[in-house]
Design brief:
Elements lengths: L6 E5 L6 E5 L4 E3 L6 E3 L3 E3 L4 E3 L2 E2 L4 E3 L4 E3 L2 E3 L2 E3 L2 E3 L2 E9 L4 E3 L2 E8 L4 E3 L2 E3 L4 H5 L1
Parallel strand pairs: 5-8, 6-9, 7-10, 8-11, 9-12, 10-13, 11-13, 12-14, 13-15, 14-16, 15-17
Antiparallel strand pairs: 1-2, 3-4
């Protein structure tokens, strides 16, 4: 018997276009804007330096001694270390007491702990296409 792969639908975090992909896929490419999106979570722990762009439907966590220079896009983002770049979360961005963000932030929710450093423009309360269209 021929097995038909199951598919799921996700929304591109950049252009809000719907993406159809196999359920077991670990990446997806948006047919509208061409961005490739990772579908798992990413963790940048102690003494880890990363440079570049990260797009994921999972979560991103930058540890207290982590340093990321580049743009981040995820479902939720936790910053305990340093991020130099723009961040966009479908859900929330959490900037901890030890966290530093130098760049713009876009999210549905933003939590900034006392002692955190934030330098950039904010867009908070964003809605997905599904929420906008009912």
């Amino acid at each position: 018997m021929l097995e038909i792969p199951s598919i799921s639908h996700i929304e591109c975090p950049f252009c809000c276009e719907e993406i159809v992909r196999p359920t077991k896929a670990i990446t997806a490419t948006c047919p509208n804007c061409g961005k490739t999106i990772a579908l798992d979570s990413r963790v940048f722990n102690q003494k880890y330096v990363f440079s570049g762009e990260i797009l994921t439907r999972g979560n991103i966590s930058v540890g207290e001694k982590g340093f990321v220079k580049g743009d981040l896009s995820a479902t939720d983002i936790v910053i305990e270390g340093i991020v130099e770049g723009n961040v966009k979360a479908v859900g929330r961005i959490l900037l901890s007491q030890s966290g530093s963000l130098i760049g713009n932030a876009e999210a549905r929710r933003l939590v900034v702990s006392e002692g955190a450093t934030l330098s950039g423009n904010l867009k908070i309360g964003l809605k997905s296409n599904k929420e906008k269209n009912g």
